[in-house]
Amino acid sequence: MARPHRAVPAAPPAYIGRFAPSPSGPLHAGSVVAALASYLDARAHDGLWLLRIEDIDPPRVEPGSDLTIRQQLRFLGLHWDAPPLYQSARVDRYQAVFDWLRAQGRIYGCGCTRREIIQAAHMLQTAHTLQTAQALQTTEALQTTQALQTTGARQAGPTRQTEPAHQASQRPSQALNTPADETPYPGTCRHGLPAGRQARAWRFRIDTTGTPPPQTLPEATNPLASADFVQPTDGNFPAAQERISNVGKAADLSNITFHDRWLGPQRQNPSLQCGDFILKRADGVWAYQLGVVVDDAESGVTDVVRGADLLSSTGRQILLLRALGAPVPRYLHLPLVMGGNGQKLSKQNGAPGVDTSGRVDAVDILNEAARALGLRQPGTRDVQRWLHEATAQWRARFCGSTINRQ
Ligand SMILES: [Zn+2]
After folding, report:
1. Confidence class for position 328, pLDDT limits 50, 70, 90
2. For residue 39, how far is its CA from the centre of ligand 1 (angstroms)?
3. What's the 277 CA to ligand 1 centre distance in angstroms?
4. In this prediction, what percent of the chain has a pLDDT beyond 70?
């Protein structure tokens, strides 16, 4: 790949955060909470706050809603520090990174339909169950009743309480991190497309064994080189080694641990959770995971503050960042705002847009978001003073100690 000249300022900002809405409608109460939290975190760290419009999924884009979102943020006093980044203008970068990963053998074509993937996963599950049953029968003949109970509990699944505590602690926290509708890809095309099949989608090959890659690639081989973006060097990421504590230690490279600044220690294993995941979809659209990773890395994002609905994506994003030799940011996943029906507020669930026409006072909207974040409501009606006071509260709660969230 051609390597453009890259200008790195002497002292890149120590903190770069971002808010990254998809323009599928106006901001609703839940997305205002995410916007406010990421804004406060950036201000509390005297950092930069970027706005990224994630508009690469055409069926989900509602024309004009990017401008609506920008108007809403301005109304709430949440001003970004650089021109908004539109993902639709970044497809050349996604292609370049995709080509580089493919040249490294990290991407392969997949010819499976969704239905075939579900069927294959089901067959694997059936085979596993059969094996388990056979093993149990053999064990039954040999073991005492007491030993049998222990073995049965281990093989029956990870949620049984009889499982030893040390085994439970080594598992990914899938209860929280695996969406129910996600069928792990069984790896059908991993070693080549079946005869007569053509690639429909392109998948990232998850390494489960081998030597952990260096945290940053030498500049000569790093695909994330662009003259347009600031990319802090490793030295600008405090305690970077601590944040990916399993690099150089774990036998299973897809076993990811990280410290979430709100939720505490997290463990995910994308190879169990989703398998080799898609970077380019069958309809030719770049996958969410690729866009996020390339943009965060090339914008020099040091801190990701977003809703807990994206927690399950974090392991995949860390794997991709590692493959690209990019620093891993710190993460803070916010509790989700639930609607009256008990469902998470989202555009898909028909959550209404926040009224920023002027009929509702901006401070009332901010107060509601503050409640969701557990912040005291600043006693002022002035938006700038309100944000200043909320920033001070956020700083006291989240800056310094990464564990205390009270
Ligand atoms: Zn396949």
Report:
1. very high
2. 40
3. 10
4. 70
**pLDDT score recorded for residue 4:** 43
Convert the pLDDT of each residue in 334-358 to its tens digit.
Answer: 998 877 667 777 766 677 899 999 8
Distance 131 CA to ligand 1 centre (A): 24
The alpha carbon of 301 and the centre of ligand 1 are apart by a number of angstroms equal to 33
What is the CA(40)–ligand 1 centre distance, in A?
A: 43
For the stretch 148-177, pLDDT in tens is 333 333 333 333 233 333 333 333 333 334
Q: Is 22 strand, coil or helix? A: coil
Six token digits for residue 167? 């085994």
Task: Place 285 in a pLDDT band, splitting at 50, 70 and 90.
Answer: very high
pLDDT-derived band at 121, boundaries 50, 70, 90: confident
> How much distance in Å is there from the Cα of 57 to the middle of ligand 1?
22
Which residues, chain by chain, have CB under 5 Å from ion ligand 1?
Answer: 110, 112, 188-189
pLDDT score recorded for residue 126 = 78
CA angle 203, 299, 292 (to 5 degrees): 30
* Residue 379 CB neighbour total at 10 angstroms: 8
32: helix, coil or strand? helix
CATH class assigned to 1-89+343-406: alpha beta
Cα-to-centroid distance, 366 and ligand 1 (Å): 46
Q: How far is the CA of 189 from the centre of ligand 1 (A)?
A: 4
Distance from Cα 188 to the centre of ligand 1, integer Å: 5
Distance, CA 112 to ligand 1 centroid (Å)?
4
CA 158 to centroid of ligand 1, rounded, Å: 27
Q: For the residues of 346-388, what is the DSSP string, one character each?
A: -TTTTPPBP--SSSS-HHHHHHHHHHHTTPPPPS-S-HHHHHH
50 confidence band (pLDDT: 50, 70, 90): very high
Residue with the two structure tokens 């969410």: 288
- In DSSP terms, 305 is beta-bridged to 332
Sequence letter at residue 27 = L
Q: Phi/psi of residue 226, each to 5°?
A: -145, 135
**Domain range annotation of the chain:** 1-89+343-406
